[in-house]
Write a structure and sequence with these properties.
Rossmann fold, about 25% helix, globular
């Protein structure tokens, strides 16, 4: 039987985004936070290349270890998410690694943190207590971090100073709001983190 040509043309592949020819610094940044906080979405939103995700469908077998009631959450990251972002004005290429938020993935944390410059920690004002385990991991690894309050539609809005107090953050730790679905918002949060990390590294003249 002769094959027939498809009636519709295949979708054009997006143009590849290559690394800049200039001598940019290349840094590893972690996107961390509790389960269902928006890490995968944030990386997918801001990555200049097709992001890599290692997700599996959630089942009731995980009911004893995961909160299956997170709204619209049907999959979970089981290894990493990965994306890439170039910041031309800063002369930096960021390699973005999203880390699983569940406690059972704690043994993987040392590998994830190895070589990282810093961490963007996403939090949800509806369940701030869920953020402390992740913050403990980050602080135990001696990594600098910024907090990004992901703005879910039904989440209560607090003044950032109140969130800072509830999370017991040091005065110098940046805290911003973010909509992980919005590229500009997520890009701003990463720029705030990057500027903070450069300052902490002593690369900015006083």
């Amino acid at each position: 039987m002769d094959s027939k040509p498809s009636s519709s043309s295949p979708a054009a592949l997006p143009a590849p985004v290559y690394l800049p020819a200039e001598d940019y610094d290349r840094e590893k940044i972690l996107i961390a936070g509790p389960f269902g906080i928006g890490k995968t979405t944030a990386i997918e939103t801001v990555s200049e290349i097709k992001s890599l995700h290692t997700e599996e469908v959630m089942t009731h077998a995980a009911a004893d270890v995961d909160d299956l009631h997170v709204e619209d959450k049907t999959t979970t990251t089981v290894a990493i998410d990965f994306g890439r972002l170039t910041l031309p004005q800063a002369g930096i290429v960021l390699y973005l690694f999203g880390t699983p938020g569940q406690e059972r993935f704690r043994p993987m944390w040392r590998d994830h943190a190895l070589g990282a410059l810093g961490v963007l920690i996403l939090v949800d004002t509806r369940r701030l207590d869920d953020s402390f385990d992740v913050m403990d991991l980050v602080e135990e690894s001696s990594l600098d971090y910024a907090i990004a309050v992901n703005q879910f539609p039904d989440a209560p809005e607090y003044d950032l100073d109140i969130v800072r107090a509830k999370l017991d953050l040091e005065d110098h730790t940046p805290i911003v709001t973010v909509d992980a679905r919005d590229r500009g918002s997520t890009l701003n949060a990463l720029k705030v983190l990057t500027a903070y990390l450069i300052t902490r590294a002593g690369d900015v003249p006083s």
